[in-house]
Amino acid sequence: MSSMTMSRSNLWEVSSRTIVYAAIGAALYGVLGLFDFLLPGTGNVSIRPAFGIVTFFGYAFGPIVGLFSGLVGNAITDQLHGYGFTTYWNWSLANGLAGLIAGLAPLYLASWMSGAISRRAIAGAIAGAVGAVIGFLFVFSDIWVGGQSFDAVVTGSYVPVVVADVITAIIVTPILVYAWEPVKEQLGR
Amino acid sequence: MNIAPRYLGRGSWLARRDPRVLVLVSVLFIMAAIQVWDGRIVAALLAVAILYYRSAQIPFRDVRRNWLAALTLVTLVVVLNTLLTGSRLEGVVVHPFFSIPLLGTVVSAESLSYAATQWMRYVGMVTVGFPVAFCVAPSDFGATFARLGVPEKFAIGVDLTFRFLPSLGADYQQTIDAQRIRGYDPMAGRGGPIVRLRRMLPILTPLTVNAIAGAEDTIDAMDLRAFGTGKRTWLRHLRFERADWAIVLFFLGLAVLMTVAGFVSTSSHLWTPQLLIDLAGG
Fold it and tell me: What ipTM describes this predicted complex?
């Protein structure tokens, strides 16, 4: 599996490299997910710099890695917070879906993923933003899980989280693409 | 920085159970709780959750902050839901107390009952979730998932994730120290969330790239051991004992009971105490 040059056919390949990258993405998200800054004007929504790791891992290493990094990474953060990974399972899955959709970039951003590094970095930002906007639609499951109203989910959860995560994804993902590309060349990936 | 998961329930009755029990109980409890809106039944479920939690013997002083954070989050979610929308009360006759200025939300006997029930449901779910966080040895999660029927590669990934946590925590601290030596302190200074996000980048970027580059050894080791060519066995053997079966069957029974009750009784409908209705002038 070569990063950022995945073809449609090997998107779903699961090798030792997939497993290890996925575990590293999840562990990084789990560790760094503990650090967040409260968004002014909201009560319970914060910017988590670590979310950029989920979108970057998805974009660079594929949908399986993105799904695992978001799903297990958020579950690890919940474990470390003490809630247990099952309590907010739907939020973990939403994070995973964001990584998965960022990882599907070769399906909708194929022409941007080859050529100059600047194009690939921009594609990373777009994939991250698309992943956050679509992936976090799953938090609407709080209507059934938590008994919240549609308006409360929109104004209290979905919109603030997507705004925060889109900002994070479009800043962090391209920077990580720029940092990773030269190292990737050195490693012969 | 110590980010290793804490195994605080070590030696307790619950920690001696098969770790699959703790995961299954949490899932079954959530399945039961999300089907009920009768506050009296939700209160009974919360009582069951508290009894279950007590068997984990997690020292309160070690989790005080976790509880404070969890209860704050749950309360915020419930208050927001109640203030913004007066809860979901379609088709329910309400007995109003007053309207919130500007928002126009009606606070009624029913919306307060809804909020209280919702709060108890969330707290119940968190209560059974705490033992999953503090009573399962972190090294057992891989085997637990594998024996729960989760795809083997996913289970190995979970196992690896827990193994990476301490070393990545150490790398994180080392990166901060290295940047401080260069005169850069990500924690110093003020600014809005985006400024603070940008200040984290000199930590996040080298940490991520080093972690990926350093993964080559692990990948080589797995390939040399022919990873993925055959079925993998686990060093940790898990076995259900009689007590494990009893707990799982009890919570399974609870989930089934709540499902059936949802069809044949009013358990899935909101219950409002008469006292609140009287106070609202009903």
Answer: 0.89
